[in-house]
């Protein structure tokens, strides 16, 4: 889980906690611009058995840094810890080995847009426009009226400097009346679900949350972290 400057808007909130809410990050972290990308900072000794997201985030980190052996090793540790991987875990892991597309095509069930989006995210990391085009074409064939992954597809073009392709996708979005949905993440605290959106400061624990973010940012800076904006979404006008 990558923490950014975002604040929560609760969909349901129990009685306000007396102590600041605890934030549980993924099991490992490594700054994207760290010259030693094989070294990770341990944030938690060992994820609990139900923390599939934490393990998947850590595996995804190694895949993004093209470290297949580390990713495979962590996947084995995940299984040994009796944490059950989900389809996102598997697609993330297989994407580095170049096998994810074949796996998706041979799946006994029809892949949903979330699965295809995971592969598109891997295409963006690897700069693989050719595979991204195949995946998006496949999605349109399966879900003609679907509206997912268009922004991601456009950003894949933009990331490699193919602005004509990015503009074409954005024009198609406008023609179909598609709009970019507001991105958010969520966290469960004491049976309450809190949604985090960028720049929102209306949460009643706003001061606590910002204090925690500032502390984390300071500690990451001490470990040599340098913000990487290469994954920032591009706004392309036609």
TrEMBL record:
<protein>
    <submittedName>
        <fullName>Putative tetratricopeptide-like helical domain-containing protein</fullName>
    </submittedName>
</protein>
<dbReference type="InterPro" id="IPR046848">
    <property type="entry name" value="E_motif"/>
</dbReference>
<dbReference type="InterPro" id="IPR046960">
    <property type="entry name" value="PPR_At4g14850-like_plant"/>
</dbReference>
<feature type="region of interest" description="Disordered">
    <location>
        <begin position="1"/>
        <end position="51"/>
    </location>
</feature>
<feature type="compositionally biased region" description="Pro residues">
    <location>
        <begin position="17"/>
        <end position="34"/>
    </location>
</feature>
<dbReference type="GO" id="GO:0003723">
    <property type="term" value="F:RNA binding"/>
</dbReference>
<dbReference type="InterPro" id="IPR011990">
    <property type="entry name" value="TPR-like_helical_dom_sf"/>
</dbReference>
<dbReference type="GO" id="GO:0009451">
    <property type="term" value="P:RNA modification"/>
</dbReference>
<dbReference type="Pfam" id="PF20431">
    <property type="entry name" value="E_motif"/>
</dbReference>
